[in-house]
Task: inverse folding
């Protein structure tokens, strides 16, 4: 007598389910060995269902072990209480494995529906999951190679794409009626108006923090009032545009990638193409133009917010009245200081827009690929924004602006 | 018109799903308005209705994906409003759903998709999981090399079949099929019907099938329920519904597309009128 029913206390103790209908309260699968005149008879009983979990596997394993060195075996299914496709499969697999080992196995006493189930859902040879993984060294090298190659390809793609967009803009310039004004205004509202509160808040805080630290450090030299120069020049030249671009890359760039990406997944972009509409014209250009208009506006507002942060902190920490702050500010900065920041904004917007839309077009079928593309859109945009800012700093230093 | 003849079979007439006075709405629009429905153990219930009548809404409400405004839904005798998380888990093991669009997990392979319910609910070895996934795949008539594909690489029909394989992974007692044969070629659709019929006979599977496929309705449905104006306007074996003089039913079954099947059905009166469980027309 074999009793894999010890697993009845296992993870799937079905009798413990209180409201389970009585018909479904079942016993674990079990195998009993009887030595009959015509060879070994294994009598199967209980519920051979997938819900039995491990007990089903142990039951099937015992089918094989119980046979011993007999040459023929009869599987008596008459006492099987319940059978489902998984149960039929394990029983049939045991039979197939016995047959392979040279033991002739046959079924007996199966109910008609069980016989049909074993026939329909029986064991078929299958290939186990392949898990071929090359060595770590190879994986590392190939990953490095792929990344380098892909970076090069990305760069070529962006240049190619920029070319397409310029061509498209040229074509649209000839046909002003084909500009999608509604779409552009809609996106402009989302990118500028809707992101204003967070941009203002962030830049206000950055201005305040920079001024506070400036006052603390410069007080040692008795030059606390130079904190105004610090926040004025740093805020207008660099921080305003940089913080705004980074926020927009995270907030708007990710949204653009996700929108275009999910449209790509749902074949909406293909639908546009077969209607002879260019996705570039319909989806990309309005977003790009909206972004190029939105970012300078936001940068201007960000500059104001940074300075107000400075005014308030100087008042609190250095006791400098706002009127004094503004007077000092006028001496500290010139129109160029403000323009340097503002000039950079449309370029930042173009970079963010290009990266976000290309990444959106890269999305393939799966949810995972959407996630990957949105992440890489944000990471690449922020990286490029900072690199661009560095390049601009060198450029402005060189031209002495 | 309620009931129709109980399905014959090894099981007594026991309602596994009982819906009473169901009201579901969006905004000020009431999609379900006092709907009553019983799904009996071991039967295949076909569910028809005009497009937009709310068939999917009803399915989703029963599955607990939409909130109802009034009424009760009992699944396996549990009131779905009073489920403990433990009960919820058990019910999740006892039903399987084939969504209209397949709803396969897009970042998992076909094999992993089929194994997901088994892996999450049961304690099985990897070899067993692989074997059962291969078996389910064979059962729905897909070649073994489909195993390592991603859902985005599958055709529409293959997606449906993989989704059915996933719905069957835990050998559930009820399967919900939302337009299972739409988008399948007639041969595959026939195989699909055969498979459902076989599983119903061998496992005592209960099937709730939203479909517009008249072939499926004739071939495997024990009863057909018709949804209209937020209620079940008629329910019964298809032979009864064919005789109904409701104008919508008439145009549905006796319209251009229905008339051929109806004629075919009349050609085999014995199989229709006498037997509540129609023979599978394709066997």
Result:
């Amino acid at each position: 007598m074999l009793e894999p029913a010890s697993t009845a206390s296992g993870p799937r103790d079905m009798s413990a389910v209180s409201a389970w209908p009585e018909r479904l309260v079942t016993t674990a699968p079990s195998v009993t060995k009887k030595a009959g005149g015509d060879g070994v008879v294994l009598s199967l009983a209980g519920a051979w269902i997938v819900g039995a979990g491990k007990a089903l596997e142990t039951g099937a394993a015992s089918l094989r072990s119980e046979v011993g060195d007999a040459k023929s075996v009869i599987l008596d299914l008459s006492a099987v209480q319940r059978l489902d496709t998984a149960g039929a499969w394990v029983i049939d697999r045991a039979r197939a494995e016995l047959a392979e080992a040279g033991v002739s196995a046959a079924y007996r006493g199966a109910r008609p529906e069980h016989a049909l189930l074993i026939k329909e859902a029986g064991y078929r040879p299958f290939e186990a999951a392949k898990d071929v993984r090359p060595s770590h060294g190879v994986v590392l090298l190939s990953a490095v190679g792929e990344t380098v190659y892909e970076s090069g390809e990305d760069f070529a793609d962006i240049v190619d794409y920029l070319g397409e967009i310029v061509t498209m803009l040229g074509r649209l310039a000839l046909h002003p009626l084909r500009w999608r004004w509604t779409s552009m205004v809609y996106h402009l509202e989302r990118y500028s108006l809707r992101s204003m509160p967070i941009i203002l808040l962030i830049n206000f805080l950055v201005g305040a923090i920079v001024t506070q630290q400036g006052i603390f450090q410069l007080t040692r030299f008795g030059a606390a009032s130079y904190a105004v120069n610090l926040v004025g020049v740093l805020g207008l030249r660099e921080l305003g545009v940089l913080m705004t671009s980074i926020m927009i890359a995270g907030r708007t760039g990710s949204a653009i990638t996700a929108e275009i990406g999910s449209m790509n997944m749902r074949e909406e972009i293909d639908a546009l193409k077969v209607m002879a509409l260019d996705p570039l014209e319909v989806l990309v250009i309005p977003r790009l133009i909206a972004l190029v208009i939105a970012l300078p506006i936001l940068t201007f507002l960000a500059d104001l917010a940074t300075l107000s942060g400075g005014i308030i902190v100087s008042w609190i920490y250095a006791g400098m009245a706002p009127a004094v702050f503004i007077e000092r500010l006028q001496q500290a900065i010139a129109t160029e200081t403000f323009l340097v920041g503002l000039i950079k904004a449309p370029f930042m917007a173009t970079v963010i827009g290009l990266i976000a839309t290309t990444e959106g077009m890269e999305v393939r079928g799966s949810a995972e690929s959407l996630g990957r593309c949105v992440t890489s859109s944000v990471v690449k945009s922020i990286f490029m924004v900072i690199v661009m800012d560095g390049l601009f700093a060198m450029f402005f230093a060189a031209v002495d602006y | 018109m309620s009931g129709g003849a109980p399905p014959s079979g090894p099981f007594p007439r026991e309602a596994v799903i009982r819906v009473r006075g169901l009201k579901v709405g969006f905004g000020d629009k009431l999609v379900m308005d006092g709907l009553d429905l019983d799904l009996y153990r071991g039967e295949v219930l076909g569910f028809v209705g005009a497009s937009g009548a709310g068939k999917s809404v009803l399915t989703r409400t029963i599955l607990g994906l939409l909130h109802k405004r009034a009424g009760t839904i009992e699944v396996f005798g549990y009131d779905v409003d009073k489920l403990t998380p433990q009960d919820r888990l058990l019910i999740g093991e006892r039903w399987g759903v084939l969504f209209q669009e397949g709803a396969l997990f897009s970042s998992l392979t076909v094999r992993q998709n089929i194994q997901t319910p088994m892996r999450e609910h049961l304690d099985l070895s990897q070899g067993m999981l692989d074997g059962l996934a291969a078996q389910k795949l064979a059962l729905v008539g897909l070649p073994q090399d489909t195993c390592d594909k991603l859902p985005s690489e599958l055709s529409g029909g293959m997606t449906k079949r993989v989704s059915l394989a996933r719905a069957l992974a835990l050998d559930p007692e009820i399967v919900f099929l939302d337009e299972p044969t739409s988008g399948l070629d007639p041969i595959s659709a026939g195989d699909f019907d055969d498979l459902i019929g076989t599983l119903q006979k061998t496992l005592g599977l209960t099937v709730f099938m939203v479909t517009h496929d008249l072939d499926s309705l004739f071939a495997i449905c024990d009863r057909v329920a018709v949804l209209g104006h937020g209620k079940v306007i008629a329910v019964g074996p298809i032979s009864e519904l064919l005789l109904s003089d409701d104008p919508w039913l008439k145009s549905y079954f006796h319209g251009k597309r229905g008339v051929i099947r109806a004629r075919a059905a009349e050609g085999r009166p014995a199989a229709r009128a006498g037997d509540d469980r129609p023979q599978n027309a394709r066997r």
